[in-house]
Amino acid sequence: MLRKALLVLCLLACAGFAALGHWQVERRRWKLDLIERVDQRVRAPAVEAPGPAQWPQIGAQADEYRHVRLRGRFLPGHDSWVLASTELGRGYWLISPLQGEDGRITLVNRGFVSGRTAPETAPAEQELTGLLRLSEPGGSLLQHNDPAAGRWYSRDVQAIAQAQHLGVVAPYFVDADADGGTGSGGGAQSQSDPQQGPVGGLTVVSFHNSHLVYAITWFALALMSLGAAWLLMREDRHPDRPAGPLRASEGDPDHGPTSP
Fold this sequence. Notes:
Elements (H helix, E strand, L loop, with lengths): L1 H42 L3 E2 L11 H4 L3 E8 L5 E7 L2 E11 L5 E9 L12 E9 L22 H7 L8 E5 L11 H5 L18 H27 L23
Parallel strand pairs: 1-2, 5-7
Antiparallel strand pairs: 2-4, 2-6, 3-4, 4-5, 6-7
């Protein structure tokens, strides 16, 4: 009875592990498709950033990392600094509101700066391009945003807009490209020196993809469970099979009884 229960358990485990392996294969297929679509968005020519009529439909699957274009003026005195760690070291993302001619306000990550010093902002209207990013509410894994103290650990669009008294803003922010959105005239020095101006174009577009390793692990466990079930069925078919061949000295019928 115990052997049959173990057999059923092994078969159930095999089916479960196989199902998990198949699920990881499907997840890998989805992840590779996502990576391809995002890569196409990043490399595509910039299109107009979604307007208010499109805001309710903004989502990660269709819009994250879309290459967009904005026009407007940066609003002075409403900058926020979000703690950042980049290839240039530790510092801040400079987040500034850009207001278009229609009054629409969009938060722009103008790039990396080493300190909390607001750069000079050109009063004239300018055009910039960048990648559309979705809001990062709450804070980082270990630290929560503190709007009252002006300490930010994530680019939380709604919380930053509320703290800066901006009213209604786009439900996304834009990571400025390396050649746009600095608000400092686009000089070469401002593009390469975080002490002189924000350095854009540092968005890291990467996706964790270990689904193949997970799938192999689950399928290996399924095979192990199937092997254990086969051994149990083998023993169940021959319950009286001796553990090994009889030695002649222990009573082999072809040689007769052993001598005392």
